[in-house]
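Thread title: Can someone regenerate the structure for this chain?

I was given the following input by a collaborator and told the matching structure tokens would be attached. They weren't. Posting the sequence so someone can regenerate them.
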Amino acid sequence: MPDSLLRPRARVTAALAATLLLLSAALGPAAAGHAAATATGSVTTTVQDAGTGQSARACVSLVPLDRERLTRVYIGESQLGRFGGCTDEQGRIEVTGVEPGRYRLFAQPYETERYGRQWVGGHGGTGQRHRAWVVLVGAGATSTAPRIRLDPPGRISGRVTDAVTGLPVAGAHVAVVPFVPHPKYTPDTPISDDTGRYTVTGLGPYDWALRFSGPRIAAQWSGGVGGALLARTVRVRPGGTATLDQDLRPPTTVRGSIRVDEPAAYGTVVAFDAVTAEVTGAVDVGTSYDLPMLPGQLVRLRCDCSFGPGRWYPAGSGFTDGLPVWVGRAPVTADFDLTAGADG
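Best answer:
Regenerated them for you:
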């Protein structure tokens, strides 16, 4: 382009930049900060039958990689993040208003008897979160996630027993993602019966790990470990039933008192892995709590015990403000003082 055309454009650009600079100064840093805080992006993808290529229907959750965002889990919710969407009639999905960051997608099909759930990979599904495709979302930008290819479902069945006594464990919740239980409503997960038997249906034909939790149970993944990365997996086949029996390891009790000015209607203490921020335990609370935990974990504790944001042990406002707590074989005491006069 000739210089004679470039020079006028440069003058216009400079004038516009100066105007924006003056406007920013007039509005002040608060307005600029608000604009930055509200800048979001979007994610688009399509869903299809892996065998025929025809469009299919499903909903997806955008699960963050960032530790602080992973801890935004509330009572009665699974740890699947705050953003998601469902397909239109053509199998297209667009999730808008997404905070910038890195995400993995978890897909749940409409037709659960025809298709199985999956973590979305680059060229098909997977049963393990850490193997899923990572989507980068930028402010004001639209990111395209890999096409979601739905496969026929299978199931996992097994028996839950006490590792010490060998007796069956009834009432164990079996899930593929961590969740924070609601004190009033039963979570939508399979529960072991009086003989310890359970069945998880609607899983894509991949390698899956399962998480076992419940009242007086130390939450643990298949293989008796605290985190999903170390869990034992089992292969699911289309239309088949894989077997996964689990001996539940005995818990260590993490307990403490809770002081608040105004208690919430439902209070919960939630334990998160100190490194990955994965939910490792949760319990309903009153003026005190007793949380069964699997020994051998370093955790951070959050008390959602009063109106307003949860507070991190002993009284921090964020995940990194929380004091890491080592859970060994001996009982652990961690008291929360969340009254107005408390530090933090």
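The two ends are 60 Å apart (CA to CA).
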